Amino acid sequence: MSRINLEPIAQTDGYPPVDTWHPDHCGDMDMVIKANGDWVHEGEVIKREKMVTLFSRILWREGDDYFLVTPGEKVRIQVEDAPFQIVRYEQSLDDQGRQVWRFFTKTNDVLNLGVDSDIKLFERADALLPYASVRHGMWASFHRNVFYQLIEQAVVVEAEDGMLVQLISAGKAYTIGTFHEM
């Protein structure tokens, strides 16, 4: 069983500089981030929120692989869909009076759409689904309830190939869905 040493960063409240760490790959860990946002280690859901948040802060992506990294270790874990999941949102105004959508992930990340996060549509199971950028090339899916609530508040814009469902945030339009009129 592979374990990762968290001692060098255990006291950190923010985001450690994982992009500057380049340890050698140490092996694989029996850890999976499920599509529903649960973190599972050796078949058991990790229930300690602070532990999951800590792991999420040292998560790194290379191509299609995900790793937990410290300055001295790098272990591969599995991710079923996206490593993060947006579980709630709020609207606020920026200093220019523009609406900004703020998303909160299950791992306590705060994403400000149009400021430090964007939305991209990815094809999943024959559907285009929105994902929000998090950091280091990683993405967050939207919990189904949050997605449906956002759809209710979005604007519909006519486009050449159908209708776009969009959120406007920080003065930018983000497509969260498409449909064709029948």
UniProtKB/TrEMBL annotation:
Residue span(s) of domain DUF1285: 16-82, 83-175
Gene3D superfamilies per the UniProt record, alphabetical: duf1285 like domain, duf1285 protein
InterPro entries to which the protein is assigned, alphabetical: DUF1285, DUF1285_beta_roll_sf, DUF1285_C, DUF1285_N
Domain of life where this protein originates: Bacteria
One Pfam family from the record: DUF1285_N
Protein name: DUF1285 domain-containing protein
Organism expressing this protein natively: Marinomonas fungiae
